[in-house]
Here is the input.
Amino acid sequence: MSLFFDLTMPGMIALIALWGMVRRVDVYDAVVQGASGGLGVLARIAPPLIALLTAVAMLRASGFLELCARWAAPLLLRLGIPPETVPLLLVRPISGSAALGVGADLMATYGPDSQIGRTAAVMMGSTETTFYTIAVYFGAAGVKKTRYAIPAALCADCVGFFTAALAVRLFFPA
Here is the structure.
């Protein structure tokens, strides 16, 4: 079975090249044109991506995330969301890699089988990196005005965070 998986990708590449030859397409030129188009997309999405990653690093280094956790703790406790997850709540819509780092920190501190660790894991799977996704996809498509996309996506993230905490409480009672 492992041999099948080892040969899947090379087999697909060979099949595509063979298909191009049968259809009399210059496969190499098509690959070069596709790569050239990919570089154009990269040039359009790199600046917003760099700005987002810089902002996340600044927020983490400044201690702002911990300050927000202290402020939001009473409300979050009423909603059933562990206040320790505030850094994740703030970072997840901005950057998936930063959220992964925050989630790993939470799991290292509280344990992956703890209520906080489980809640963080489910939150990561239940929400999207909203600003990153909008920056990448809207930037690639040349969309300048996001209109209602950001508020709608942030509302969906809030619902995802709340539902993740609820699901963990229901399926893994403390």
